[in-house]
Amino acid sequence: MSRHLERLLQLDSLLRTRQRPTTVSLAQELEVSERTIRNDLAFLKDRFHAPLEYSHKLGHHYTESEWRLPSIPLSKGELFALTVGARMLEAYAGSPYALQLRSAIARLSERLPETIWVNVQQLAQEHILFNAGAEIDLDPDIWHKIEDACSLRKRVMMTYYTASRDDISERKLDPYLLHVYRGTNLYLIGYCHNRQKFLWFRVDRIRKLEILQEYFTPDPQFNAKEYIGNVFQHEVGDKQLDVKIWFDAKTAPYIRERRWHYTQEIEQHSDGSLTLKMCVRGINDLKRWVMWYGKGAVVKSPPELVELVRQEVEAMSNNYAVKTI
């Protein structure tokens, strides 16, 4: 945005909110000369036909309150889309952008007549509902520090909680990118100097983060899209797995209606069942995903995944076994 346009937007806001704005008070507020203010006011009147007048009682003011300074050509539909987007972010508790987006939408709404803005808000609140399910506790300060570190390519030192081991560790990391998975799962992907490999870290499990003065050079062999594309859900895994999972006829429609992985192939069977084939990383997430479908899914390969599911089913069976006295 040019400095002149930015100043015009600020001037427009002051004319609507400040009591009895004068040339002197506006110049002081915007930190420019009185001559600049006079030129800007003349520009608003000549170029945009602003209904501006001056009186001793009101100062510089608009004689038509519905008049709006044309800036961004934003339609009612576009504003509605932004409003819905903001409410969607609010539904995902802990979103670091919800406040900024609401503020931006409020500023954009100032360019529309009040009746249109009220109608947009009412429609979004009464007819579109969001529920993100389980909430996370996200520290916005940590999120924005990660943004800065990724942008500046600076190493970070973080205190991280690993849920699977119930353990706290200190790690030096080269932060590459942030990945938002299913709206509420926020991950930092980077090169961990402790483990000497690329790892995923849940942002809400980062207890403390410090940006170091050390810069890092990204690995030219690292391809973000390819790296994320190879994983299943969000688990990286150590090796690629050729996976085959059979789904019965009752479950098959739920598998066909989505694209679970970019490598997937579906083999249809005459009885309505199907076999899903894909090449992915992340065996533990695969196990949890397959078991979500219960008896409707059977792992055919690889053998290690078959065994992992078998052990889990056996342990669950023992938990629910009927004990006899």
UniProtKB/TrEMBL annotation:
<keyword id="KW-0238">DNA-binding</keyword>
<keyword id="KW-0805">Transcription regulation</keyword>
<feature type="domain" description="WYL">
    <location>
        <begin position="144"/>
        <end position="211"/>
    </location>
</feature>
<dbReference type="Pfam" id="PF25583">
    <property type="entry name" value="WCX"/>
</dbReference>
<dbReference type="InterPro" id="IPR051534">
    <property type="entry name" value="CBASS_pafABC_assoc_protein"/>
</dbReference>
<dbReference type="InterPro" id="IPR026881">
    <property type="entry name" value="WYL_dom"/>
</dbReference>
<dbReference type="GO" id="GO:0003700">
    <property type="term" value="F:DNA-binding transcription factor activity"/>
</dbReference>
<dbReference type="GO" id="GO:0003677">
    <property type="term" value="F:DNA binding"/>
</dbReference>
<keyword id="KW-0804">Transcription</keyword>
<dbReference type="InterPro" id="IPR036390">
    <property type="entry name" value="WH_DNA-bd_sf"/>
</dbReference>
<dbReference type="InterPro" id="IPR036388">
    <property type="entry name" value="WH-like_DNA-bd_sf"/>
</dbReference>
<dbReference type="InterPro" id="IPR018356">
    <property type="entry name" value="Tscrpt_reg_HTH_DeoR_CS"/>
</dbReference>
<feature type="domain" description="Helix-turn-helix type 11">
    <location>
        <begin position="8"/>
        <end position="54"/>
    </location>
</feature>
<dbReference type="InterPro" id="IPR057727">
    <property type="entry name" value="WCX_dom"/>
</dbReference>
<dbReference type="InterPro" id="IPR028349">
    <property type="entry name" value="PafC-like"/>
</dbReference>
<feature type="domain" description="WCX">
    <location>
        <begin position="241"/>
        <end position="316"/>
    </location>
</feature>
<dbReference type="Pfam" id="PF13280">
    <property type="entry name" value="WYL"/>
</dbReference>
<protein>
    <submittedName>
        <fullName>DNA-binding protein</fullName>
    </submittedName>
</protein>
<dbReference type="InterPro" id="IPR013196">
    <property type="entry name" value="HTH_11"/>
</dbReference>
<dbReference type="Pfam" id="PF08279">
    <property type="entry name" value="HTH_11"/>
</dbReference>
